[in-house]
């Protein structure tokens, strides 16, 4: 009798297991509606500027990706190269501000990912005629969703669940917690990121920007009063005459092009030496001579963030201590 029950139970489990494992078709919700993906995607095209970083992290090899800038092979920056190589991804690369439907069609996709992008409903409809298309995360502005939510959305679309995403999130959370514990001096300190050029002036990244969220994850806080000044793109423009608004505990200056002489131009501004940034060496000049560290700050992906966790905390700690003798310096990373 017991043997018979065991045989029946084994048969039932054999029948039920495939149904439990079945994740497709799946319907995924995003900012522009709901998209049904009929089967596990095999030919993914990535149209968001940083979406391929997420796909590499998830172990997904896209057949086509979008170039943002710098023109690395396969549009893959140094922090993501190992993940790309590990899965053998060698995607076609599209460069351009306007998405080419012809290029997308030529990749013969069965899923189009456009999460770190701002496609409008008309373009979304056109892309959806080519293949199921996923737009940005619902409930957030374009380019404004936390990286964790971007990752979960892409994992659901490509695997049918979020198991891989949750494992990655947990791992990076642990890295952030370790950095926060190692640098308690950062708790409660004010800071943000900024850049400068003579045409725009001083431009700060608002508190909802993805790069600002990274600084806040280390225990820092956004400077009081500045948040109310951000525009719809989470940017705050400050004229040189109002530079005292930048009197935070630290400002991070990402430098894409060393030839632009950003540091020299900022330090030459009349008010710079009169505020704490100048007097106490509270600026973090994110300049490695190649723009890689600056690119990582802009990408804010599951592959660039671990890179930044090794880089930023010691530089931030040197900047916020108020001692001009401890000048933040860019470490060398592998």
Please explain how this structure is put together.
The chain has 334 residues and is of the alpha/beta class. Helix 7 runs parallel beside helix 12 and helix 11 packs across helix 12 (304-320). It has helices at residues 2-21, 51-57, 78-87, 101-106, 121-130, 147-159, 163-182, 210-217, 262-267, 276-279, 292-299, 304-320; strands at 26-30, 33-37, 44-46, 64-67, 92-95, 111-113, 133-134, 191-197, 201-205, 235-238, 250-254, 283-286. Helix content is 39%, strand content 15%. The protein folds into 2 domains: 22-161, 3-Layer(aba) Sandwich (Rossmann fold); 184-320, Nitrogenase molybdenum iron protein domain (Rossmann fold), CATH 3.40.50. The protein contains 12 helices and 12 strands. Strand 4 (64-67), helix 3 (78-87) and strand 5 form a beta-alpha-beta unit. Mean pLDDT is 91; it is low at 1-21. The strands form 4 sheets. Strands 10-9-8-11-12 form a 5-stranded mixed β-sheet.
What descriptors fit this protein?
alpha/beta; 2 domains; Rossmann fold; five-stranded mixed beta sheet; three-stranded parallel beta sheet; 334 residues; disordered N terminus; single chain
Furnish the topology, listing elements before pairings.
Elements: H1 2-21, E1 26-30, E2 33-37, E3 44-46, H2 51-57, E4 64-67, H3 78-87, E5 92-95, H4 101-106, E6 111-113, H5 121-130, E7 133-134, H6 147-159, H7 163-182, E8 191-197, E9 201-205, H8 210-217, E10 235-238, E11 250-254, H9 262-267, H10 276-279, E12 283-286, H11 292-299, H12 304-320
Parallel strand pairs: 3-6, 4-5, 6-7, 8-11, 11-12
Antiparallel strand pairs: 1-2, 8-9, 9-10
Helix pairs in contact: 6-7, 7-12, 11-12
């Amino acid at each position: 009798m017991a043997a018979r029950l065991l045989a029946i139970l084994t048969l039932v489990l054999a029948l039920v297991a495939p149904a439990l494992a079945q994740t497709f078709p799946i319907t995924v919700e995003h900012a522009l509606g709901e998209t049904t993906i009929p089967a596990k995607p095999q030919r993914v095209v990535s149209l968001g500027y940083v979406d391929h970083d997420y796909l590499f992290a998830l172990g997904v090899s896209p057949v086509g990706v979008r170039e943002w800038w710098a023109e690395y092979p396969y549009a893959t920056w140094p922090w993501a190269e190992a993940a790309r190589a590990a899965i053998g991804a060698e995607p076609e690369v599209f460069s351009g501000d306007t998405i080419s439907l012809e290029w997308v069609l030529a990749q013969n996709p069965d899923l189009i990912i456009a999460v770190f992008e701002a496609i409008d409903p008309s373009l979304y409809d056109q892309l959806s005629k080519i293949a199921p298309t996923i737009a940005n995360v619902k409930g957030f502005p374009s380019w404004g969703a936390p990286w964790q939510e971007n990752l979960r959305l892409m994992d659901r679309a490509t695997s049918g669940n979020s198991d891989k995403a949750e494992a990655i999130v947990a791992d990076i959370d642990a890295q952030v917690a370790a950095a926060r514990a190692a640098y308690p001096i950062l708790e409660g300190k004010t800071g943000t990121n900024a850049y400068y050029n003579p045409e725009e002036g001083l431009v700060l990244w608002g508190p909802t920007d993805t790069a600002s969220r990274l600084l806040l994850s280390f225990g820092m806080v956004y400077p009081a009063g500045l948040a109310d000044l951000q525009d719809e793109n989470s940017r705050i423009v400050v004229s040189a005459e109002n530079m005292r608004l930048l009197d935070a505990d630290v400002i991070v200056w990402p430098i894409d092009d060393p030839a632009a002489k950003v540091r020299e131009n900022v330090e030459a501004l009349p008010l710079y030496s009169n505020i704490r940034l100048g007097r106490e060496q509270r600026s973090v000049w994110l300049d490695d001579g190649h723009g890689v560290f600056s690119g990582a700050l802009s990408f804010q992906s599951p592959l660039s963030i671990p890179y930044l966790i090794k880089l930023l905390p010691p530089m931030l700690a040197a900047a916020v201590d108020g001692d001009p003798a401890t000048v933040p310096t860019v470490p060398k990373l592998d």
